[in-house]
């Protein structure tokens, strides 16, 4: 029984009539994680935004997006807004740019929560505080007071994860959540994402071109190229029995890279992170 | 923050000194000796060397340049800009009321300009590429290319003469503001509208807007947040608009016979009344520097990073 | 390459044609104008359009069309000349600052700062006020005011490049540094100079005709667009059509110039479009950002 079912999703630019994502269909079961892999411009992000109906005005879409029996593409704006943030949470690529630069983080979180729950101020604070502690933010109160520029990219990434813990969504869409981070922080954020999935038992769409991360977290993998899904299958299959030449190329590139790295590091096991 | 303001104000002092010196020296760049102008203006029939020397001594024009400058500067600080060469009236008694009249005109126009450009800028940024955006933009493009005096003449002809709705000139009641303000608004709103629009657009494409939407924040509130950030640039530009407008009302005042700075200055230029021109340049340059400082302070106050660190 | 890109945009091509045609007509005015511009013909005062006088006659019976054509010279050609002169002055100062650096650079750039902190219109009035009304004095005022823009741009482009490897390489080969700057560095600054110059051009045309309209510019009987409107002004309410022709011509020329400037900018650097339209603000804003990051 799938939780999210995307059928015949087509995304195109209405000003140039250029098709950006061609007829993609995929399903996502509860508790599963689907990774979408591909180079930049392959339509990964557009697909994610299309699920939340957040593409720019000139970018149009057709097809059905069914979440838990409700077709999101038929909802009116107001109802769709109720889904955003509450049922589907997004975790953005670059934490440093994902928050309004002129507002403290806490004010923003409070506003989002007020949109979806009628909790008292104290309740909001306790819940958010607990979530922040659980993702390793040691001093929630000071984080809430801070402006985005005062926090690091990794911390802001965790703030987004903490927000999705509080929101308890059905689906989390993480759009290249680790790309903008350094290696150590990447590892920690991946840890948190994996924990988040186990904890909420929600479904996750994980967009990345980091095959390490994909291997770690995904059950299923989609490979996109030029707006089309060229390969799909379970994560295990993906790394061993890829059919499409492009996928094989991706995997070999990654393998040769890590082999080279291992050689450079004297064959030590450092590269396993 | 207050330290920053103090520092910023401190920075203007040397600039003000340089500007006042330049203004003072301008007088001496003139191909015509000021003394001769005065004597001409006073209707002296034959100008002899002795007469020139005598007048110079009387007006303190024979002392070294730097001394003259210091005297002039100290007097200017007391709003004493000397006497008009032509009428002999103290400059400030002419400049003061004129400045007030121009300020009234500028304030009314700038409120209209800012209001209009914010409203249009926001709407056009939200509806980017639609017909409304395109038509407002092409219209503003045409209107900025229109000579202000031409537009003024056309409006005056149509509304004041043909329809006889509004007065053609002078500054009597509220109705006499309509045409001059309209001309200034049409001439300048286009520029500021474009700034707001492009500033809004650059913010609308930021990740944080996407994230706010993805969190289910309604579009109207997202727009407000974006506007607030877009205003940071706009505030700077707006605060500079006021002195710019002060200097640009010349044409409008001339056409509508507005008794302001512009009318006064044009007359002064035509009759080579140097003290008035000097005072005009000094007042506007100082206004420019002050508003510039104000712009920086407001900009800092709106920017959390600046607010925290100073 | 650049010209080709501009040509591909139909409106920009039209603007280019208009501006080009204006310049050409202005240069060849005596050949094209049907009548001498200052020929007074009192019998034809305020005459309407006729086959002989396409746009009618003014208050002295002079041919409006011929006056319009001759008006291109002060209104457009001389403004262009002043613009080119200020580009030259600015380039010279910019090179001097980038070449000698150190104290020369500091002094010149502070001077630029001061020039740029003055409101343009007021300064023009100040210079005209001191030197007296007249076209030449306005043009002098323009040159005095605009050079600072170009000096700043040229210097900003020169400084980093003067340090670049290929310049050092050329130095090793024995070329003098000044020659290197002129030969290799200047062409890089050209696009940005072109953008600033073209956007200044439109406002300068408007300003000069405005000053002539106020009686501070060219003196009678010479034909100039602002001057023509000044003359038509006395009969503004009885014969508004006399104001029409010069006004429309100015609008067409200025919007073509502005449009050309926009498309030039788009063709060169689309990203800059955001900050365009506010030359002054752009400069200020960047400085502020730089100060923030320190």
Describe this structure in words.
The complex is a heterotrimer of chains A (273), B (310) and C (294). Chain A has 273 residues and is an alpha/beta fold. Helix content of chain A is 43%, strand content 25%. In chain A, helix 7 (153-167) runs parallel beside helix 8. The model of chain A is unreliable at 267-273 (pLDDT under 50). Chain A has helices at 44-51, 77-83, 95-98, 105-116, 121-134, 140-145, 153-167, 183-200, 211-217, 235-240, 245-264; strands at residues 2-13, 18-29, 33-37, 59-67, 70-71, 88-91, 171-175, 203-208, 220-225, 228-234. Chain B has a domain at 100-309: MetI-like fold, CATH 1.10.3720. Chain B has helices spanning 2-29, 34-41, 49-59, 65-77, 91-126, 131-144, 148-162, 175-204, 207-214, 219-248, 250-256, 261-270, 274-302, 304-309. Chain B is flat. The mean pLDDT of chain B is 82. Chain C is mainly alpha-helical. Chain C has one domain: MetI-like fold, CATH 1.10.3720. In chain C, helix 4 packs parallel to helix 7, helix 6 crosses helix 7 (135-162) and helix 9 runs antiparallel to helix 11. Chain C: It comes from Paenibacillus cellulosilyticus. Chain C: Pfam families: BPD_transp_1, OppC_N.
Strand fraction of chain A: 15-25%
Question: Which structural category do the helix and sheet elements of chain A fall into?
Answer: alpha/beta
Spatial shape of chain C: elongated
| Low-confidence residue ranges of chain C | 271-294
Supply the CATH class of the domain at 1-75 and 207-259 in chain A.
Alpha Beta
Series of H and E elements of chain A: EEEHEEHEHHHHHEHEHEEHH
CATH class of chain C: Mainly Alpha
The CATH level-2 architecture of the domain at 1-75 and 207-259 in chain A is identified as 3-Layer(aba) Sandwich
Quick one: CATH superfamily of chain C? Answer: MetI-like
Assembly level: heterotrimer
Overall structural domain count of chain C = 1
GO cellular component, one term (chain A): plasma membrane
InterPro entries (chain A): AAA+_ATPase, ABC_Ni/Peptide_Import, ABC_transporter-like_ATP-bd, ABC_transporter-like_CS, P-loop_NTPase
Keywords (chain A): ATP-binding, Cell membrane, Membrane, Nucleotide-binding, Transport
Membrane topology (chain A): Peripheral membrane protein
């Amino acid at each position: 029984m799938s939780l999210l079912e995307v059928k015949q999703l087509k995304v195109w630019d209405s000003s140039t009539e250029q098709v950006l994502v061609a007829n993609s269909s995929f399903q996502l079961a509860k508790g599963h994680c689907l990774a979408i892999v591909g180079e930049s411009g392959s339509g990964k992000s557009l697909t994610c935004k299309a699920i939340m109906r957040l593409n720019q005005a000139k970018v149009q879409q057709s097809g059905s997006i069914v979440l838990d029996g409700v077709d999101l593409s038929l909802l009116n704006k107001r109802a769709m807004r109720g889904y955003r943030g509450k049922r589907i949470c997004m975790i953005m690529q670059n934490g440093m740019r994902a928050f309004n630069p002129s507002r403290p983080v806490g004010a923003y979180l409070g506003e989002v929560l007020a949109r979806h729950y009628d909790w008292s101020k104290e309740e909001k604070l306790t819940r958010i505080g607990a979530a922040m502690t659980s993702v390793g933010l040691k001093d929630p109160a000071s984080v809430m007071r801070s402006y985005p520029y005062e926090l690091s990219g990794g911390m802001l990434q965790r703030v987004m994860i903490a927000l999705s813990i509080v929101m308890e969504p059905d689906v989390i869409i993480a759009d290249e959540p680790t790309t903008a981070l350094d290696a150590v922080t990447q590892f920690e954020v991946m840890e948190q994402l994996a924990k988040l999935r186990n904890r909420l038992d929600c479904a996750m769409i994980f967009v990345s071109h980091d095959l390490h991360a994909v291997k770690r977290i995904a059950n299923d993998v989609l490979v996109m190229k030029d707006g089309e899904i060229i390969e799909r299958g379970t994560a295990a299959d993906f790394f061993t029995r890829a059919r499409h030449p492009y996928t094989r190329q991706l995997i070999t590139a990654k393998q040769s890279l890590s082999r080279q790295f291992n050689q450079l590091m004297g064959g030590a096991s450092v590269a396993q992170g | 923050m207050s330290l920053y303001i103090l520092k910023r104000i401190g920075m203007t002092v040397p600039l003000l000194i340089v500007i006042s010196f330049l203004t003072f020296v301008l007088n001496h760049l003139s191909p015509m000796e000021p003394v001769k102008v005065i004597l001409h203006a006073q209707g002296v029939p034959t100008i002899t060397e002795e007469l020139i020397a005598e007048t110079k001594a009387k007006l303190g024009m024979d002392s070294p340049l730097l001394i003259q400058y210091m005297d002039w500067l100290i007097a200017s600080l007391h709003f004493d800009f000397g006497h008009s060469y032509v009428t002999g009236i103290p400059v400030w008694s002419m400049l003061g009321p004129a400045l007030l009249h121009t300020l009234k005109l500028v304030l009314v126009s700038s409120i209209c300009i800012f209001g209009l450009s914010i409203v249009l800028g926001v709407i056009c940024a939200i509806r980017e590429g639609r017909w409304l955006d395109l038509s407002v933009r092409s219209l503003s493009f045409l209107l900025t290319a229109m000579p202000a005096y031409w537009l003024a003449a056309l409006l005056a002809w149509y509304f004041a003469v043909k329809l006889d709705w509004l007065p053609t000139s002078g500054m009597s009641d509220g109705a006499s503001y309509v045409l001059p303000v309209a001309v200034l608004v049409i001439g300048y709103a286009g520029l500021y509208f474009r700034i707001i629009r492009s500033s809004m657009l650059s913010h609308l494409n930021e990740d944080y807007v996407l994230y706010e939407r993805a969190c289910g924040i309604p579009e109207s509130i997202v727009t407000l947040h974006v506007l607030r950030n877009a205003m940071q640039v706009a505030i700077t530009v707006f605060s500079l608009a006021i002195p710019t407008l002060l200097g640009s009302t010349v044409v409008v005042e001339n056409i509508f016979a507005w008794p302001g700075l512009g009318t006064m200055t044009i007359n002064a230029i035509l009759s080579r009344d140097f003290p008035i021109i000097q005072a005009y340049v000094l007042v506007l340059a100082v206004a420019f520097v002050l508003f510039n400082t104000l712009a920086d302070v407001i900009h800092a106050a709106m920017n959390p990073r600046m607010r925290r660190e100073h | 390459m650049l010209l080709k890109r501009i040509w591909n945009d139909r409106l920009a091509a039209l603007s280019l044609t208009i501006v080009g045609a204006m310049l050409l007509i202005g240069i060849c005015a005596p050949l094209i104008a049907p009548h001498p511009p200052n020929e007074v013909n009192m019998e034809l005062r305020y005459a309407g359009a006729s086959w002989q006088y396409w746009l009618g006659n003014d208050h002295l019976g002079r041919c409006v069309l011929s006056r319009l054509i001759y008006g291109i010279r002060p209104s457009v050609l001389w403004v262009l000349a002043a613009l080119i002169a200020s580009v030259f002055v600015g380039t010279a100062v910019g090179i001097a600052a980038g070449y000698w650096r150190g104290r020369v650079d500091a002094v010149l750039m502070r001077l630029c700062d001061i020039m740029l902190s003055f409101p343009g219109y007021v300064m023009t009035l100040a210079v005209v006020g001191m030197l007296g009304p007249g076209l030449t004095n306005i043009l002098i005022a323009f040159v005095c005011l605009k050079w600072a823009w170009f000096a700043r741009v040229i210097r900003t482009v020169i400084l980093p490049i003067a340090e670049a490897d290929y310049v050092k390489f050329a130095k090793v080969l024995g070329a003098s540094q000044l020659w290197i700057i002129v030969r290799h560095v200047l062409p890089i600054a050209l696009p940005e100079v072109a953008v600033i110059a073209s956007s200044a051009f439109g406002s300068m045309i408007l300003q000069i005709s405005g000053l002539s309209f106020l009686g501070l510019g060219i003196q009678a009987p010479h034909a100039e667009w602002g001057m023509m409107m000044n003359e038509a002004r006395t009969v503004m309410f009885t014969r508004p059509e006399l104001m029409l022709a010069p006004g429309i011509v100015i609008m067409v020329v200025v919007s073509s110039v502005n449009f050309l400037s926009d498309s030039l900018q788009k063709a060169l650097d689309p990203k800059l479009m955001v900050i365009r339209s506010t030359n002054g603000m752009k400069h200020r804003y960047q400085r502020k950002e730089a100060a923030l990051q320190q």
